[in-house]
Amino acid sequence: FPSSVSQTLTEFELKWQHWHGECFNHLQCGTFSSSQHMESICKILLGDEDALLEKRDLMTTWYHYLVSHLLFTHPTVKPTELHSYAQVTGGTGPEPLDNILLAALEFDIHQVIKDIVSSNWWFVAHLSDLLDRCELFSSHNMDFGSNMREFLLLEYASGLFSHHSLWQLAVDYFDHCPKLGRAYLELHIERIPLTTEKKALKVLRICEQRQMSDQVRSICKIMAMKTLRHGRLGSALSWSIRAKDAAFATLISDRFLKDYCERGKFSDLDLIDNLGPAMLLSDHLMFLGKYREFHRLYSEQQFIDAANLLLSLMTASIAPCYFRLTLLLDALPLLEQKEVIFSTMQTYALMKCLEDPKVATRESADTEDSQKPQTLRLTISRSETPSILMASPWL
What phi and psi, each to the nearest 5 degrees, are found at residue 267? Predict the structure, then answer.
C-alpha cells in the first residue's frame, strides 16, 4: 500500500480488504495453479490456517507464529486482543520467557516484573526504569516509602556491590534513587573491604564527591590504623590528617619524634616538609613541623633564625616532655659557633630550660646521654661571657 502520514486506520482496513479480495480472486481463478509454491504463498498471504500450520515448523517459537498469523489475518489487531490470540495460537511453553510474554500481552506489569526478577535483575531494573518514565508505576508505592522502580534499582545495585569488580557501577544506580539511594550507599560503603590504598582512594573519592563526611573520616581512620600497624608512619600521618583526627595525628607525631630520638633522623621528609596548614590539627603535629623547619634552617646555615625557632620550641608548651632534652642538645652546635648566635636573654632562657625538673628526670633516666647535659651546662656558661660583652653598651 502507498504510505501516507494522514492515512487513517479505517482507510488502511479498506485498502487491505481490497488487496485481500484480489488475492482471493487470483486463488479461486487458478492464476497460480501451475506453480505449487506460488499457490502456497498466495494462501499464506490470505491467512489460510492450513497453509500457515503447514509451515509452522519453520517458526521456532509460538510468538513467531502469532506475529505471522496476525499479519495476514488481522493486521489491525488491538493490543488488548493480543492475549486471546496468543491462547488460540498455542501461546504456552516451558520457558520463563513464555510466561513473561503472556503476562505482558495481558498488560499485567507487576506479573511481568515478578517473573523477570527470578531470572534477570539487570533486565527488570532497567525495564522498571522505562516503565516509571512512562508513568506506569506512579500509583504503586512500597510500604517503606520507595516506589517500585526505586525498590528494584536498589536491589540490583545491592547485588552489584557484592561483586569485587562491579561495585563501582552500583554507585551510579544508587545516585538515581532519590529517596533511599544515599542511605543504601552509605550502608554499603562501610562494608567495602579496603584491601589496598588504591581501592581506599577510590572509595574515598566517591564519598568526597557526595559530601559523605562521616564515611570519609571512617575510611581515613581505618587506613591510618592499617598503615600504622605496618610501620608506615608517613602514610598513617597522611590518612590521619585527611580524617582530621587530632588524637591520632598526635599519636603518630609522637611516633615520628620518638623514632627521631632513637635514629637521629626523620623518615618521610617530603610529607613533613609540606604539612602546611595541616600542622594546626594538633600541637604535637605543629611541633613536628616546626622542629623539621629548625633542621632546614640549620642546614641552610641560617643560624640566628634557627636559634630563635629552637628557643621558641623550648619555651612553648607544645613540646613533648620527653623531647625537651633533645631540643637542648640541638643548641650545642649553635653555642659552639664562632659567631655569637644566642643573646644574653636567650642564653639565660637556655639555662632555665636545662634546669627544668622534667629535663632532669629525663637526664637521670638516660644513662647513655648522662654526660651531654653537663657538656651543655659548660657550653652555656662559656657562651654567657661573649653574650654579655656583645650586649654591653660600653663596647
Answer: -100, 165
Domain count along the chain: 3
DSSP state of 230: T
| Distance of alpha carbon 390 from alpha carbon 344, whole angstroms | 8
Domain finish residue from 243, 276, 309: 276
Q: Write down which residue in 147, 174, 192 finishes a domain.
A: 192
Q: Residue 138 domain-assigned? A: yes
| Distance of alpha carbon 173 from alpha carbon 153, whole angstroms | 7
Would you tell me how many other CB atoms lie within 10 Å of the CB of residue 110?
Answer: 11
The three cell numbers of residue 124 are 527488570
Give the count of beta carbons closer than 10 Å to the beta carbon of residue 303. 16
Judge residue 339's burial from the number of C-beta atoms within 10 Å of its C-beta, 0-12 exposed, 13-18 middle, 19 or more buried: exposed
Q: Could you list the residue range(s) of the whole structural domain that residue 371 is in?
A: 324-395
In a shared domain, residues 174 and 199: no
Q: How many C-beta atoms lie closer than 10 Å to residue 221's C-beta?
A: 17
- The fraction of the chain above a pLDDT of 70, given in percent, is 85
What is the per-residue pLDDT across 13-33, written as a single tens digit (0 to 9) for each? 999 999 999 999 988 888 888
d(CA 89, CA 81): 13
Instruction: Give yes or no for a contact between 32 and 58, defined as CB atoms under 8 angstroms apart.
Output: no
pLDDT over threshold 60, residue 1 = no
